[in-house]
Amino acid sequence: MELHLTLIFNGIATGMLIFLLAAGLSLIFGLMSVLNFAHGALFMFGAYAGTYVYILLGGWAGGWSIFYFGLGLLAAAVIGIILGFIVERTTIRQVYGDHLRQILVTTGVMLVVMELVRVFWGSNVIQVGRPQVLDGRTEMMNVLFGHYRLFIIAFGVIVLVGMLIMLKKSKIGLVVRAGVENKEMVQALGINVRRVFTFVFIFGTTLACIGGFLWGPYQGQINPNMGMDLMLIAFIVVAIGGMGSVGGSAVAAILVGLSEAYMAYFFPPGALAVNMLIMAVVLLVKPTGLLGATR
Amino acid sequence: MLKVNQLQTYIEQFHILQGVEFEVPEGQVTVILGRNGAGKTTTMRSIMGLTPAKSGEILFQGKNIMALPPYVTAKKGIGYVPEDQDIFGTLTVEENMRVAMRKEDKATLERQEWILSLFPDLKAAWKRKGGNLSGGQKQMLSIGRALVNETPLLLIDEPSKGLAPIMVKKVMEALQIIKNDTTVLLVEQNFMMASRIGDYFYILDEGRTVYQGEMEQLRKDEELRKKYLGIS
Questions:
Q1: What is the ipTM of this complex?
Q2: Which of helix, strand or coil describes residue B19?
Q3: Contact state of B91 with A184 under an 8 Å Cβ cutoff
Q4: Which of A148, A200, A261, B111 is spaced 20 to 30 Å from A210 by Cα?
Q5: Position A237 pLDDT exceeds 60
Q6: How many domains does chain B have?
């Protein structure tokens, strides 16, 4: 029982981080029909930018402070906004509606971002500590609950609820949901869908950068390949959850997180294969994904 | 209100509109008729900028709107009801209306009330998702959505298509009221409906305007109907 509670807890925490990466990817693909292969690299860049601020200031202050962790999170978010705006305006905007060019261009962006990270911060792994107040564990029912994992779960839930409220209640949220279904009709109603695209791309990139920053203390390190490693998982989550569905991404991310936790314990080499199998079964039963809209 | 001159539109390599011309006077219902594949829907889409025309002229209230993106055309006051209604299926009726609202001021909310009085079925289905509506309710919602902002000109593409006769009657009754304060350009295959609502007609054939006249003339002229529309 304790083992299962531990694995479920770990799986949900991992799932929440994957959700931060996949939610943006899902919205970008669902609304804009853009296959963004650079999303993982942007996740990694956010990790480096935020961690740089966290370590630099923390180093001066002499410890892993929650205050500097907060500043690192803020830095990752700001970098996400800036990067999202630049990438959408300079590259993505030129290739709307052309999937082949999207793959080429976003792969190019991915390579450039990865090289930039190597130039600025080198190719070596950078160790990242958890802020002291989030570094402990609490024991309940003979299970140790890591504070940082609890923080990640709480953060993910807040982001998920915030996104769902935004999509349900705000005008921009309604436009995004309508646009995921039928972009053309949204335009015919007098809405500049390109402006909505820019907003969604910036939002998705910012989420990825925040997720990247939070990933560092979770794994204890960051490296230039971390985005690539998680991209495949993120695509699987988007396919399982349904393109453009935030709720679907959350459910699928937790499902994948749980499968990762269980497989890491029982049979680590089979983790990816099990996720692929889940995706194949879901797509066979429901080709639009668990919560994807039928077009 | 709307004047279309020598409209030429291609879809990929196919030359669909080969010189469509017509005029929509203010306060009237102008009907575009023609067999399947004549270019009626493409004409509507070209006016909206959804299938941009290659050449020609589209004048709305005296200004050329041909090169404009669809959202700008819509903002100028042209409402569009597409052939397949294009309701947002995962959004409720209320949300579909809200997406269309450019402002949520008193005037717009009053227009929404007026639309709901026109289509009481929509009020009854207010919290229901668009995808769960009947064909007739979808058509009502599509028309309501297009009218919720100030809309001097309404383009409606085949509003009777696929509807049960009772729904066709309801939609037709609503259009009779709408035409009192909105200029309408109607594409319709159902001649009975078109002839009851329309004031003036144009017939398209193979992407060209081939005939025009008062609707009364077409009602009386069986030969003309047979020749261009294949109906008697």
A1: 0.92
A2: strand
A3: no
A4: A261
A5: yes
A6: 1
